[in-house]
Amino acid sequence: MTVLQDISTFEDIKLLVNTFYDKVQKDDFIGPIFNEKIGHRWPEHLEKMYRFWQTVLLEVHSYSGSPFPPHKHLPIDKEHFDRWMQLFIETNDTLFQGPIADEAKLRAKNMAEMFNYKINYFRDQGQKGDLLNLK
C-alpha cells in the first residue's frame, strides 16, 4: 500500500492543479463550460491556479487578484459546483493525505459555496433590475 504525502511544495500544487483540471476538461458535465470559457488559454489559467493555490495552501504570496469576477456570468448552478467539488476531492484524495490536503478540500468547499451564493445573488439582482426597467 502506498502512503500518500501531504501537499508541501510548488510541484505538489502543480500536480494537484494539472490532474484536477485535466479531469475538468474531460468531464461531460462541467468540461464544456470550462472549455468554452477558457478556450485556448488553458496554460495561462493553469499558471494562475498554481499561484492561487500556492498562496492559499503554502502561504507563498504569489497570487493577487479577485477570483470571483471571471465566474460571475457563467451559466452554472449548484449542480455544477457539486461536480467541481466531487472532482476536486477525488483528485486530492488520490494524490495527497494530510493537514494541508484537508485544508485544500475545505478551502475548495468554501470557495464553491461562496461563488454559488454570489452568482445567484447577481442573477437575482439582474432579474430585479430587469423587472424595474419594465415598469
TrEMBL record:
The record ties this protein, via Pfam families, to:
Bac_globin (PF01152)
Keyword field: Heme, Iron, Metal-binding, Transport
Q: Which domain of life is it from?
A: Bacteria
Q: Which residues form a coiled coil?
A: none
Extract the InterPro entries matched here: Globin-like_sf, Globin/Proto, Hemoglobin_trunc
Name of the featured protein? Group III truncated hemoglobin
